[in-house]
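[Primary structure, fold]
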Amino acid sequence: MNQKTNNSERVNPEITKRIEELREFIHRYDYEYYVLNEPSVHDREYDRLMDELISLEKQYPFLVTPDSPTQRVGGEPIKEFPVVFHDISMLSLSNTYSEDELHDFHRRVRELIPSKEEVNYTTELKIDGVAISLQYRGGLFVQGVTRGDGTRGDEISNNLRTIKSIPLRLNFKEVEEKLFENIEVRGEIYMNRKEFDLMNIEREKLGEKLFANPRNATAGTLKLQDPRLVAERPLNFFVYSLRSYSTELNSQSENLLLLKNLGFKVNQQYKLCESIYDVIQFCREWEEKRESLPYDIDGVVIKVNDLKQQELLGNIAKSPRWATAFKFEAKKTRTKLKKITLQVGRQGTITPVAELEPVLLAGTTVSRATLHNFEEIQRKDIREGDSVLIEKGGDIIPKVIEVVIDERSSTSDPFEAPEKCPECGSKLFNPEGEVAIYCINYDCPAQVKGRIIHFASRGTMDIEGLGEAIIEKFVELGFLNNVADVYRLKNHRSKLIELEGYGEKSIDNLLTAIEESKSQSFERILFALGIRHVGAGVAKVLARSFSSIDDLIKAKHEDIQKIHEIGETISESISNFFSNKNNLKLIKDLRGFGLQFESKQKSSSTKLSGKSFVVTGTLGSMTRDEAKQRIELLGGKTTDSVSSKTGFVIAGENPGSKLEKAKKLKIEILSEDDFLTLLKS
């Protein structure tokens, strides 16, 4: 018997009862104030109850529990956030910008859903905030993680505990506890505009730098490593997604009601729409009313309501097929285009950029805007010195949309597309059928910098200390000429520590981080290579489909294209990348430095080699992820959706639409007992 139990047994039962009573009161009052916006108690009474609870917990510290309201702010600042992998990737949504595109989305959905089934949609406001995932076990909040790159994010639980609209314990008064005590929810952290403005006023009084807009302030706050500072910021939370580890769920609209009953703050401006016409009406209505809300929204999220239909529709590499975001028309303003400059990307693409007279637009000061490509400049006849209209596409990326011809100077000249690279002077190349112009000099300094910046970034090799500024300096000084040179920096240690602004400690920390990056997974390295069209999601699919880089290099274009979630454009780009001798030499060099060009999780046998599996429903002896790992250890492959290429479907309890699809395709179905027998055979 532990010390806590012994201590608890010696406490007067009335004390224990009073502590739990105080917690219940405070949890309820927090819910009424921060979730319902219907406070039922005066601030003075709330403070009195909290003071009493703090006093009792100080007197009896062994009675403190993780879900106590006193534990919202606690712990010392940390140096870095642990990285956590999401059980299911947090995918980004595809965007639509017009009624025609919404009709196209509906058509694609209808093509994949049986004609006899109705398709309904839930429409929800798209909050302009920061997406997070929360885990609850036994009804208590245990972990909170940022979206990150969609596959993994930062574990920021202590910061999220400070947000009073996030419940520390679930409410089971209207929901069956055993079905929802272990859940994952997802939602958006945000700030109300009024509270954001008041925070900026206080910062201005203190001489601190002002935040550009509520979303930037929210993102910056969640990165703070001291939860006590986070608690001082006016963060709020809306939840929009529910996943139970114990029961099959039916629909998005039902989930929103369940989330509300569990004690979460659900944005009530959602609607169950019976047709795409109802969806369009909802989108247009809120585009007009968006300014009436106390928080920022940048569109509407449309989801197929039926969860079995969602499962049937599945995902592509980056986004779900069952959802899309309708983005509101961007806000516009007028300013002067001072100069057109040219940027060279890591793949040699020359991008024209408009340097502008700074102007306030949608909450931020804009001084640069994209011009997309030279064909666009010619089409709009954009010239240096013009007055132009700019907008934020999707309220994010500024772009020039129109020239104010009446204000143009009579002496202005049309802008001529360059013939040589602005960085290295090489002749530029315009491939047939493309509008983009490229620098094809592989050793162009701008491309070298871009490739190394991408390679070292957090989403790829995650080399701490090797940021954009230091990479640019090292390239200019000749220490970095290609990605492989990152692992040769240790040979220049004596010269590096003599550089102004650096020292022995900072350089040694950098070299340590470089060495540690060698342990990154095969899929992260594939992403880091910078293959065109291969993002984090596609890299994960490739790493799952090919056990090594050698297998991928040998694969034919047609074979790559057959992989689920990879189309012709991506497969062609992969084939082109591995046909380039510079890229093959790079891989050889990186392999020589010890990078992992094979999947770390090697098969313990080959008895399931060549067989593919889909796991659906709830298994009694293991989780679905554990089942997938055991399959892959025996040489098999796993996918998340059923197709004619699927070999077996392992069906647990409440298997859903995947089982029905497997039956229609006459795919062999294994029970959990069948699967366990297969593993032992």
Q: What stands out?
A: Residues 3-71 form a domain with the Helix Hairpins fold (CATH 1.10.287.610).
